[in-house]
Write a structure and sequence with these properties.
With about 60 residues, this protein is an all-alpha fold. It is about 35% helix and about 0% strand. It is built from 2 helices and no strands. The longest helix is centred in the N-terminal third of the chain and has 13 residues. The protein is flat, with a radius of gyration of 12 Å. The two termini are about 20 Å apart.
């Protein structure tokens, strides 16, 4: 998720957690490009990454 609103982040985090997902905060919308197609996040299937790998792949993204 990407949001500037901490209340929204908290709400979505709780919701995803209740649904059995491991939410990852991608920071503000200005950083949402880190999860765009072609970035390291998509190097492996989303189902094939642990939460830690997803966080690491978001950090590896470089602007085109």
């Amino acid at each position: 998720m990407s949001s500037d609103d901490p209340v929204a982040v908290a709400f979505v985090t709780r919701l995803y957690d209740q649904l059995g997902f491991d939410p990852v905060n991608n920071g503000p919308p200005a950083e949402s490009w880190r999860s765009a197609p072609g970035t390291p996040v998509w190097a492996a299937s989303v189902d094939g990454q642990s939460r830690d790998q997803l966080i690491r792949n978001l950090a590896l993204a470089r602007r085109p």
